[in-house]
Design brief:
Strand content: 35-45%
Shape: globular
Helix content: 10-25%
Radius of gyration: 16 Å
Number of strands: 12
Structural class: alpha+beta
Order of helices and strands: HEEHEEEEEHEEEEEH
Largest sheet: 6 strands, mixed
Oligomer: single chain
Distance between the termini: 20 Å
Strand order of the largest sheet: 3-6-7-8-9-10
């Protein structure tokens, strides 16, 4: 993923509607690399390692073959998380319907079956900040493709309880294993982790 950072405590907070208005009127250019994170507009860095870029390509190829017609994936595209006051651009989001469904509005967490982030030096952010955002929005499953330890981490069962925002279950898949691709509780396919990681 592109790097996400925590906002300073004194920063001004914007609503999701404010963020969209800033894009619409040109305050934020539509190609500017920014996200809204819990009400704060944060700049993203776009630098990727060769391995990160190649793994992004392998994931895209595998998803293109595995997804049924009623689902499609987007790469580094808009996803609104109302519950987390955020508008992110995850590396991959798996969405219901075809791409034409969203030509007039942004998809939100209710449209999303799976989010994937590819992590190298961003691993701590993806395991903490990103994970808490997706859990708060009730994204049913979140994968961290961990290039530092060459594994895929699957997070499921999002919970928000007593101020704690997290996924209850984490399962790690090594490069010798396969990971189930699940949508709405149904297993769609098994993906080779070694192929994803180019091992």
């Amino acid at each position: 993923m592109s790097r996400r950072q925590f906002a300073p405590a004194a920063a001004h907070r914007f609503s999701i509607a404010d963020f969209h208005k800033m894009i619409d009127v040109g305050i934020l250019h539509k190609y500017t690399r920014v996200e809204l994170i819990r009400g704060h507009v944060m700049e993203k860095t776009a630098t990727r390692s060769p391995l990160n870029s190649s793994v992004m390509g392998s994931i895209g190829s595998m998803l293109r073959k595995a997804l049924p017609e009623e689902w499609h994936f987007r790469t580094q595209s808009n996803l609104v998380l109302v519950a987390a006051e955020s508008h992110l651009e995850p590396d991959f989001s798996i969405l219901r319907g075809n791409s034409h469904k969203y030509h007039l509005w942004y998809p939100d967490a209710g449209d999303c079956g799976l989010v994937v982030e590819v992590a190298d030096e961003t691993l701590p952010v993806d395991r903490e900040l990103s994970m808490s955002l997706y859990a708060q929005a009730q994204i049913p499953e979140y994968w961290v493709v961990n290039l530092m330890e060459m594994q895929i981490e699957s997070y499921t069962q999002p919970t928000v309880m007593m101020g704690q925002i997290r996924y209850e279950k984490r399962t790690d898949y090594s490069s010798e294993s396969t990971i189930p691709l699940r949508l709405e509780g149904q297993e769609i396919s098994q993906l080779s982790v070694g192929e994803v990681l180019l091992r």
